[in-house]
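User: ok so my PI wants both of these folded by tonight, can you help

Assistant: No problem, let's get them done. Here's the first:
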Amino acid sequence: MVISKSGQRQYSNRIIEIDFLRGIALILMMLFHFLYDLQEFYNIPIPYWNNFWYYEGKTSAILFMFLAGISCTLSKNNLIRGCKIFLIGMLLTIGSYIFMPGEYIRFGILHLLGLSMIIFHFIKKIPHVWSGALALIIIILGNMMNHITINTWILIPLGLIHGDFVSMDYYPLFPWFGVFLIGTIIGKVVYKDKKSIFHIKRNRGFINFMGRHSLFIYLIHQPIFLSLLYVIFHFILKDR
């Protein structure tokens, strides 16, 4: 980011379409989480885990993984970024355990993205074909592991769970690290010059703004949603 002579901020070092798509993913995720809150905390009969809403939520998560993979090819400090995001994921684990111990976040999307960035730091120089093969293997194995249960929680990050496993957010390395790797391949091929593929100089607009600040919005949106719903259901709709 640079400051122009007029004093306005210009995000010349950012790729516009990545910010835009990340903003779209954030909106989809927020909508899914809002429906989740209505169902889980206020018993509003919304089938968020079936049919359209299930795939809407998964589309958001996959888009985040894919874009994170692309972004990693544009960054020089993936190890630090990965450790930071994984640490934030662990803080969410602690917080969710305090408030919802029965289904707290064991290995959510921030854990996945953080660990994926750390792993990519050490394998970033492998050829595209090997990255693609590895991604395919991870996705196939991950889908096979969906049908396997074990008697320990130790392998939860890999995708092997025990029979009574419950988590409000769960994205293990198998198969989802494969999606991340596909993003890194696209980043290396399509964005090898670290520039937008569109000839657009402005990176403004609400969706792009959200995309530029996606981590911050991700962290604050649920407390805001839950606070608003609490006011609505306990004060506004209480006597109706």
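One down. Here's the second:
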Amino acid sequence: MKYQVLGPLRVIDRGAAWPISAPKMESVLATLLVRGNQVVSVPQLTLEIWGENPPRRATPAIHVYISQLRKLLAGADARDRPARQTVGPIVTSAAGYLLQVGPDDLDCLVFQRLVQRGRRELVERRCAEAVATLSAALELWHGPALGQLCNGPIVTGFAGWLEELRLECIEMQIEAELVLGRHRELIGRLYRLTSEHPLHEVFYAQLMRALFASERRADALRVYGHAWDVLRRELGLEPGLRLRELQRAVLATDDRSRVPLAAYAG
């Protein structure tokens, strides 16, 4: 049994993917997956499902959801096991419930490993390898992490952390491609990224570098001006030091080789 959380929550059984149709049962499974191989208490599950206003019979309801999940996750081969044998990956303890997850069973664990490997390759300037590794990591995504299932603090916090890691993965992938000289190919994508993430200064800096290296100095300076306007309007702040230094370098020279590449340092 495998699980996908890099997009809507899905369970993969023998190559077939299916969603969890009951929303509260889906919340229980998502919480157990986020805390994979760790015990989650009944009060924590209660908070994830109902927030600060649980129903009077919340605890019995959770026991029912766990029972339903056990049947769901037992797999098609459960009928072939001895009746006395524990079936399925959910373990009960005095403190709560634990979902056993292997290192390849959950797509976000695979994603993390690929990001770590891509980061090492980029730091070591093995840029072609880094692009391949980080591209493979991004291909695991099928939408926002856990879809629209972010209600409680455990799942919401985890989904936010995953999104930050996804953005870092994109940054590193683009950085590796810039070092490989793929400036013109990246311009359209970087314009889209600055539109989707208008407060993310790294994408502005990468777009400026791509434009300047493509002999579009004026466009690079216009990107800085746009970033300055957005940051002042939204946050009351000027661009950070890295972006300001890049703007000064573009203003000061026509020599593309003298504009800092701001190499990724991990």
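The beta strands are 2-4, 10-13, 16-19, 90-93, 96-99. Residues 79-85 have pLDDT under 50 and may be disordered. Good luck tonight!
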